[in-house]
Design brief:
nine-stranded mixed sheet; Immunoglobulin-like; 2 helices; single chain; 9 strands; 141 residues
Length: 141
């Protein structure tokens, strides 16, 4: 019973931030559903991130692509969770394909309402973690 009540009163962002550890984020204003998002991270590193297909459909295979410049990377993850409704935390690892190019695959679950999502790209650089926070929406099914 206590767990059920906590589900409705605890913000998923708070739980996520607690388990993610210290990450130096920037907030992106870029629309992942229209553009390749180019950002300069808090440490000055440059990245370009995209999701295909661009409309980010639910329950369909998605591809996450990252291009980096001059970053020594230990691990890259893209973590997604619902903002307007608790839908769980989905974590996708991106694998190195060639120098500065990384790719991962995944899907977003369906929901009966239109969803607002936060996607956090986290780059573990051995000495620190830097990242970008993106927001996007999907249509309910």
């Amino acid at each position: 019973m206590l767990i059920a009540l906590a589900y409705f009163f605890v913000d998923m962002k708070d739980i996520y931030n607690f388990i993610s550890g210290e990450v130096k984020y920037i907030n992106s204003k870029c629309n992942l559903q229209k553009d390749i998002c180019k950002e300069v991270l808090s440490d000055g590193s440059e990245i370009a991130f995209s999701i295909t297909p661009e409309n980010i459909p639910i329950m369909r295979p998605l591809e996450f692509n990252l291009k980096t410049k001059n970053i020594n990377v230990n691990e890259i993850e893209f973590k997604i969770f619902g903002i307007n409704m608790g839908m769980g935390l989905y974590s996708f690892k991106l694998q190195k394909e060639s120098k500065g190019n990384y790719r991962g695959n995944g899907l977003i679950p369906s929901c009966v309402i239109d969803m607002k999502w936060e996607g956090n790209l986290i780059i573990d650089k051995n000495s620190e973690k830097v990242g970008v926070k993106f927001e996007f929406e999907t249509d309910g099914s």
